[in-house]
Amino acid sequence: MSVDTAVETKTVFGAEVPQPPQHGAAGGVMRGLNFGTGLIGGIGLAAVAGWVTAILTPSSASNASFAPMEPTYVYLAVLLGWVVGFMLGMGAFVGPLRWVVGRDITHADAEYMAGKDLGRKRYWKYTTDHKVVGIQYLVVTLFILGFAGLLAMLIRTELGMTWTSLFTPSFYNSMIGTHGIAMIIGMIVVISGPLGNFIVPMMIGARDMAYPRLNALSVWLLVAAVPMLVSSMFMGGIQDGWSVYQPLASQAPVGMLGYQMTIIIFAISTAIASVNLMTTILTMRAKGMTWSRTPIFVYGIFAASVMGLYAFPFFQYAQILGLTDRVFSTSFFDPLNGGSVWLYENLFWLLGHPEVYVILIPSMAVALELMPVFLRKPLFSFNFAVAGIVGVVALSGLVWAHHMYMTGWAPAANYPFMLSTEMISIPVGFLVLVAIGTFWRGTAWTRLPLMAVYAVIFNKMIGGVTGVYLSDVPADQYFHGSMFVVAHFHFMLMGAGLFGAMAGIAFFFPKMTGRILDERVGSIGLWTAFIGFQITFISMFVAGLQGQPRRVLDFDDQFNLSNWISTIGAYIIGIGMLIFLSAIITSWRSGVIASSNPWGSKSLEWQTETPVPLENFPVLPVVTERPYNYGVPDPYEAELESIDEDLTEKAGTK
Amino acid sequence: MSADTLIPEEPEAPTNRPPSMERVRSWLQRPYARKILILTVVIGFLLLPLAWLLLAAMNQTGAPASEIMKDIEQTVFVFTLVSIPITAFVFAVLVYSLIGWRQISGDEPPMQDSPAIRTNTIGVILWTVASSLLAMFLVVWGLVELAQITANSYGSISADEQPGQKSSEIINVTGQQWVWTFEYPEHNGLTSDILYLPLDRPVYFNVTSKDVIHNFWAVELGVKIDANPGAITQTGVTANKLGTFNVRCAELCGMHHAFMQTQIQVLEQDAFDSWVRESGGKKTS
Amino acid sequence: MSTSTLPVSPTTGEPITTIARRARLGLWLLIVADVAGTIALVISYSYLWSLNVNGGWAPPGATLTANQTNSTLPTTPSTATFAVEWPFWAILFVVVVATALMWFGYRSARSGNHAGLMVGAGLSFLVTVAALIFQWIQMSTFPFDAGDGAYASAVLLLCASNIFHLFLLLFIGMGIFMRARKGLIDKTNWYQAQLLSYYMTWVCIAFLLGAILTTFMVESPNTDPAIFGTFKQQ
Question: What superfamily in CATH does domain C22-47+87-216 come from?
Answer without folding.
Answer: Cytochrome c oxidase, subunit III, four-helix bundle (1.20.120.80)
